[in-house]
Specification:
single chain, 695 residues, alpha+beta, seven-stranded mixed β-sheet, globular, binds fe (ii) ion
């Protein structure tokens, strides 16, 4: 970011209609009679989207009985006791924004730690927050950040944040985090009320975290229907002490995934029971709540004010006409999805640019969610879909150079090809994709980091290698991908779009291309290639996926959902002769194949199991853990990128320990910077613990 003057900052602040706190050259002692009253600020404080000279500060101060305040005083200081205050301002509060408050603090020095706090007219003050500005564009210092996703306060505990805080407080200054990138599912809009599911979820107890005032009940869960409901779920999540402490310690950079709006949400639609229904009003409500609760530099057409969202008026009208890119042309749909733009770039020195994209607002329908596609899924092969079927479903009318088959056939199943007249799946949408590629090409940073909320690394298995007689014959021609509830529906099965992006990276000689993702509730490290054997394997970058903070993953679901007598249960959650409980054998299945998985279950000998690895199955994967929770930390320098996975036990209950509970393992995945024409490589180092089946 270029250095800005006071004048250009004020122009920017005016453009944002932001209440701006401008940094003064000389620091002064605070004269504000601040008395900390956290109960007056029940959702804590936060900061977001730091630049080298500015950051957005956030709090919420609701009325207390007759005590209604319409403005807050914000202070930014160089020290925690506010003897060196460098900026202050008055910020308005109103019911229109649910009493949330956003302030742009500018004129700050780059790569500095600042403290901030809010005080009302009677002296009741928020807790003190800590934030950090980014280094300037030409600064070569290393950058370190955490990336996280998928916290479910209804079903689990946020111990991962406690661990992150514990480690950061004890780290050497140069090893501390600069920010936390949140890749979505900050909230889960789907909530189970405890009485509706007395047996809980798997081994987890359901917490009574929210009651939607206008919620809709679907089967045994509840979903929000208006902005009041979406605000309520954010508020209740922010009452979690571990999450609230994390927001007070680091600036967050947040992007929504699906659950900020709707479980199977795409554009202004939501889907339940295989039926799409218009939900433009809910999409706008979800965007409004995101704007109010996540301090971020987002664009909204209603005007640049940081104070209020001013939602566009929309109705839930059927969306019938989709253009040649799969974008629903219904005017309320377009208004709803354009009511808040989340894709943006942020820069940290010369080493890193973060390019964040939106995977839900502009995407076309996920074909594996179509009821017709269910014909290719069977209980005999849990989660599996034949690869050749996925290829046809993804490419639509573009399949086979524009000559898609009239029917999709696999084994004895044959259905009409319902995709043959539809465009290839897009997750980014045509406009955002053009923006993304342009930013990738123009970026001057050493590492171009794509913050993609959904995973890009292929997830496949080789059921064609199953021994005969174990179960039904595999109907596919070869490899299997996975259905949408297990894996598909992300950038790993949007083959056409992913290929377009990776070809662009290759053709433009872009180096230092790394993707960080979430959504899959599992840890993955690997290489970004558009094809896998028998197609050419040509990596153009590196890619990572972080495990969930707390939401349950596939291993947990299979552990509780796959019957003991299922002939393939051991491929997913089997036990070797020496194991006393189910193990995440699925990791072996995905990295090495069915022969390795079956060998381990038979002999308990991991070495013997790995010796039977199918080298063509997953040459792109260097590490996978489908059962892991926790967070990931990235460190970039001018010549290396390292990602650390910090894995904790299943966070069923809150740990009362200062460190957030024990670690299961810590691994490091290191890539040296590669030059144009060179192949990226990843090196695995196990630092703590033993992720037995993951490599
Ligand atoms: Fe999630």
């Amino acid at each position: 970011m270029m250095t800005i003057t006071r004048r250009s900052f004020m122009e920017m602040a005016i453009a944002l209609s932001a209440i701006a706190a401008w940094g003064q050259p000389t620091a002064t002692r605070s004269k504000v009679p601040w008395h900390e009253r956290r109960d007056f600020y029940p959702e804590g404080v936060a900061s977001g989207d730091p630049a080298s000279d500015s950051v957005i500060l956030w709090t919420r101060r609701p009325p207390r009985d007759s005590n209604v305040v319409d403005r807050l005083h914000v202070e930014v200081a160089e020290d925690e006791s506010f003897t060196r205050v460098v900026a202050s301002a008055e910020a308005p509060l109103s019911e229109a924004s649910d009493w949330t408050c956003r302030v742009l603090a500018g004129g700050l020095k780059p790569a500095r730690i600042y403290w901030y706090r809010f005080t009302d007219a009677t002296g009741y003050g928020s807790r003190v927050g800590r934030t950090i500005t980014a280094p300037p564009d030409d600064d070569t210092r290393p950058v370190r950040f955490a990336f996280v996703c998928c916290q479910n306060a209804n079903q689990g505990a946020q111990n991962a944040y406690r661990r992150m805080i514990f480690e950061d407080e004890r780290a050497a200054e140069e090893d501390r985090l600069g920010f936390v990138l949140h890749l979505g599912d900050f909230i889960y809009e789907i909530v189970w009320y405890p009485e509706d599911r007395p047996q809980g979820m798997y081994d987890r107890r359901l917490r009574d975290i929210v009651r939607y005032e206008h919620g809709e009940k679907i089967r045994d869960f509840h979903i929000p229907t208006d902005v009041g409901d979406y605000r309520a779920i954010y508020r209740n999540y922010l009452h979690d002490p571990d999450l609230q402490d994390a927001r007070a310690r680091w600036p967050f950079v947040c992007m929504w995934d699906n659950h900020e709006f709707s479980w199977i949400g795409w554009q202004g639609l939501q889907q339940f029971g295989g039926v799409n229904r218009p939900a433009q009003t809910r999409k706008v409500a979800a965007n409004q709540a995101f704007f109010e609760y996540q301090p971020a530099r987002l664009y909204k057409p209603s005007g640049p004010s940081l104070d209020r969202f001013d939602p566009p008026a929309v109705v839930d009208a059927p969306i019938k006409h989709f253009d040649e890119n799969g974008l629903g042309q219904e005017p309320n749909n377009l208004s709803a999805i354009h009511s808040l733009r989340g894709h943006r770039t942020l820069r940290w020195g010369s080493n890193m640019e973060l390019i964040i994209t939106d995977q839900r607002s502009y995407r076309s329908e996920e074909p594996t969610y179509r009821p017709e596609a269910q014909a290719f899924m069977s209980n005999d092969f849990p989660g599996f879909i034949p690869q050749e079927v996925l290829d046809i479903l993804d490419a639509g009318s573009a399949y086979n150079n524009g000559h898609p088959p009239a029917t999709i056939k696999c084994g004895s199943t044959e259905i009409a090809n319902f995709r043959k007249d539809q465009p290839p799946t897009t997750i980014l949408g045509v406009e955002q994709k053009a923006w993304f590629l342009d930013r990738l090409e123009k970026s001057k940073a050493t590492w171009k980091i794509w913050g993609d909320t959904v995973a890009t690394l292929d997830m496949r298995a080789d059921p064609q290698n199953l021994p005969p007689g174990l179960t039904a014959a595999w109907p596919g021609a070869g490899y299997a991908g996975f259905d949408a509830s297990t894996g598909a529906g992300d950038h790993s099965t949007a083959y056409v779009e992913r290929g377009e992006i990776y070809d662009f990276v290759r053709d433009h000689g872009i180096t230092g291309f790394a993707t960080v993702a979430g959504d899959r509730h599992s840890f993955w490290a690997g290489l970004a290639s558009k094809g896998l054997p028998p197609k050419p394997f040509e990596p153009v970058g590196i890619a990572f996926v972080t495990g969930s903070i707390s939401a349950p993953g596939v291993v947990e679901a299979f552990e509780h959902g796959l019957p003991n007598e299922h002939p393939l249960r051991s491929l997913f959650v089997g036990q070797g002769p020496g194991d006393t409980r189910p193990q995440p054998i699925m990791n072996l299945l995905l990295k090495h194949g069915v022969r390795s998985a079956l060998e381990y279950v038979k002999s308990g000998d991991l070495q013997k199991a790995r010796a039977l690895s199918n080298p063509d199955l997953s040459p792109h994967v260097s590490f996978v853990d489908m059962g892991g929770h926790g967070y990931a930390v990235v460190r970039v320098t001018s010549d290396t990128l390292e990602t650390e996975f910090v894995c904790i036990p299943r966070p069923i209950e809150r740990s009362e320990r200062a460190d957030g509970g024990p670690l299961l393992y810590r691994t490091r995945h290191r890539a040296a910077f590669w030059r144009k024409g060179e192949r990226p490589k990843l090196q695995l180092q196990i630092l703590e613990g033993d992720p037995r089946f993951s490599a």
